[in-house]
Amino acid sequence: MDDGGDVRSLRTESDGVAAHLDGITKVFGKLTALDQVSFTANRGRIQALVGENGAGKTTLMRVLYGALKPEQGAISLHGNEVQLDSAADGISHHIGMVSQHYAIIPELTCLQNLMLGAEPEAWIKQAECISRADELATKMGFSFDWTAKAETLSPSGAQKLEILKLLWRDAEIMILDEPTAMLSPADSDALFGSLRQLADQGAAIIVVTHRLPEVLDYCDHVTVLRGGKLMADKPVSETNAEELAELIIGHGVDAPVLDEFEPGEILLKVASLTVKGERGDEAVQGADLTLRSGEVVGLAGVDGSGQRELFQAILGLLNPVSGSILLCGADAERVSPSKRIEQGLRLIAEDRHAEGVVDDWSLEANASLGLQRLEPLRSGPWIDRKERADFAQQSTDLFAAKHQGIDKPMSSLSGGNQQRFVAARALLLRPKVILAFQPTRGLDIDGAAQVFSQLRKTCRDENAAALVVSFDLDELIEHTDRIVAMSGGRIQSPPPGEEKSRKIIGELMVEAG
């Protein structure tokens, strides 16, 4: 791209083949991850790649990017067969990929992260680089403080920065793996609007996603994988959500039936809570919230409305400026996070890598992370290794997380299976109040439905309560008992009779408070 942010090297043809993978087979040990899969990405087209967790989607894209070498098959770019031996080869052919796991270095500035590995010249003229970075960000509808450390970014901000890296590197073939997993509905709409502009200029856009509405609303073509095999490849106009769901998981998906129940005792009461964020602003302003046993409550809101700070205050990681938090009937003001866990507080973290797991530790060690003081995991001052191993096995079994043994590192699991593990761990050991931030992030249709079903069952059977943050409003409407909206740090409830009104809740989400 030139300094004006235009796509410099994209071909002008809108219907030509940018990339073609022919008969790709990839094997990991005894697992055939891809079995004779063919795939085509066209210039001028937004191509969706869908499938359940473990279907081979990311593996196929890593082959196209050059990060993996297949055992069989051929790769052609713009009609010419090529050999890609590394991701550097892919980048040199103007292929860019944003994976589910960010490659952001917290200690560097946003600008340094944007340019890393693709600096314009030996001597960097910061003002010129910031000008170009602003052009790219404006093009995508994003905004950044380029001199700020990347550690200040929210997960959605980090995702946006990763996407901008593709433009900085002049990518012609853009692979985005779950790009909207951490974005609000408004940000997702804006992102796809920008992707459409890039496609219209001749880029080939490939979106790996589990969200069928965005496939149907924004994509031109869809490819379905199941168990490493190609199941379908067709224009989006020739399919629908029901057919895609059945192609993805092999059977139809029934809408959840929310059983009638009477909420019980108050397990969490937040009253007039005000909490300052990291930048000193009042991220939570006079918030009131009550959770009763048996219920699953959705917390809707655009990203940055105070959800994180609310969770951190309930967890004991931020001290409120004013207001009160009652946890299981007791004042939590002077109670440490570890004691709150002993009282039954559990977390399904927004960013499992930063807050939920240690990648290099085994599944067994990760099972007790944060729960090590609880019985039966504790034996006197020590960890009971047998009980911990049993608990780790339960944490993999609850949602059928695929793994090669509980002694293997967490990094050996796919992103979806890591999420299954983290969600199960929070539900298994006598929870009372469950804070779930994007609990189905990266999960396929079946996986998401299973997590919500078990979350609801746990709350009903164990007399627990759950507060669920999701940037997918439709997910909250479908799976929670009631919804409150957070905007500008304040919490509001829909009026009686409108508890599940998409229109009303959407209006509350963007209200200034």
What would you note in describing this structure?
Helices cover 32% and strands 25% of the residues. It has 513 residues and is an alpha/beta fold. The chain folds into three domains: 17-249, P-loop containing nucleotide triphosphate hydrolases (Rossmann fold, 3-Layer(aba) Sandwich); 266-344 and 432-513, Rossmann fold (3-Layer(aba) Sandwich); 354-429, no CATH class. The two termini are 41 Å apart. Residues 1-14 have low confidence and may be disordered.
Condensed summary:
It contains 17 helices and 22 strands. It is an alpha/beta fold.
How are the secondary structure elements laid out?
Layout: E1 17-28, E2 31-42, E3 45-50, H1 57-65, E4 72-77, E5 80-82, H2 87-92, E6 95-98, H3 110-115, H4 126-140, H5 155-168, E7 173-177, H6 185-200, E8 204-208, H7 212-218, E9 221-226, E10 229-235, H8 241-249, E11 266-276, E12 282-292, E13 296-300, H9 307-315, E14 322-327, E15 330-331, H10 337-342, E16 345-348, H11 352-356, H12 363-367, E17 378-379, E18 382-383, H13 385-397, H14 415-428, E19 433-437, H15 445-461, E20 465-469, H16 473-479, E21 482-487, E22 490-492, H17 502-509
Parallel strand pairs: 3-8, 3-9, 6-7, 7-8, 13-20, 13-21, 16-19, 19-20
Antiparallel strand pairs: 1-2, 1-4, 4-5, 9-10, 11-12, 11-14, 14-15, 17-18, 21-22
Helix pairs in contact: 13-14, 14-15
